[in-house]
């Protein structure tokens, strides 16, 4: 009798184990604050918040004191892009975009079968991303539904970056590894203009503090300030290795920061067109 009771207890324990115990479920990674995935920063009043990917989860920090505020859920796949809007964090993982609020999973954006979704960007009430199969996917942020998709032929236009130029209603600029850019109206799904090649693949793009001017980071290490309204170069700088990130000061000081794939950060004096640090 005792043997049968012992066997029953073992079988019961095995059944619980197969169902999945939460005893050793991952909770928090100690000393792990960021990965190679670009962070997302947002300002709420005078306070800035930074969201970083940490493999299969994400962290949200108070930028002033670098206090850890929230830890995202543990996903089945690595987080390949993060975007913070208000109280919500959009995390792209395993081909899905998961919506979290204060570190808790809320829902997902409508699923698309296009592989991993990279480079999440906010555009008004829309969330945009670049899919693994070379498509720009656009969702309605409020309804969570798919708004539209713009497909490209990889051989002629391999999408690498996108940005919404300030004051350009319903329009986005899309960059490619071929070094060309296109202006698209997302409402009509029409290509309005295509720029001539920049001579090297475009790796990143950001809006500068000046209307109509975008900063372009190139594969060969050049940084271009380009007036998209007039389609002309305003300034050209160069650093070692490909450009991986660009940013500007927002306090009326003409300074730009650029980064490369080796982890180096360069600070540029734009008035004098020279490297500061």
What does this structure look like?
- The structure is a single chain.
- The strands form six sheets. This protein has a four-stranded antiparallel β-sheet with strand order 1-2-3-4, with no helix packed on it. Strands 5-6-7-8 form a four-stranded antiparallel β-sheet, with no helix packed on it.
- A hairpin with a 4-residue loop joins strand 15 (181-185) and strand 16 (190-194).
- It is globular, with a radius of gyration of 22 Å.
- The protein has one helix and 24 strands.
- It has one helix at residues 2-19; strands at residues 40-44, 47-53, 58-62, 67-71, 79-85, 88-93, 96-101, 104-108, 117-123, 126-131, 135-140, 146-151, 159-163, 171-176, 181-185, 190-194, 202-207, 213-218, 222-227, 232-238, 243-248, 255-260, 265-269, 274-275.
- With 277 residues, it is mainly beta.
Features:
277 residues, four-stranded antiparallel sheet, mainly beta, 24 strands, single chain
Distance between the termini: 79 Å
Average pLDDT confidence is: 90
Uncertain regions: pLDDT < 50 for 5+ in a row? Answer: 10-18
Which secondary-structure class do the elements indicate? mainly beta
- How are the strands ordered across the major sheet? 1-2-3-4
Strand content is over 45%
- Count the beta strands: 24
Largest sheet, described in full? 4 strands, antiparallel
Oligomeric grouping of the chains:
single chain
What's the tally of helices?
1
**Approximately how much helix is present in the residues?**
under 10%
Output the radius of gyration: 22 Å
Shape: globular
Order of helices and strands: HEEEEEEEEEEEEEEEEEEEEEEEE
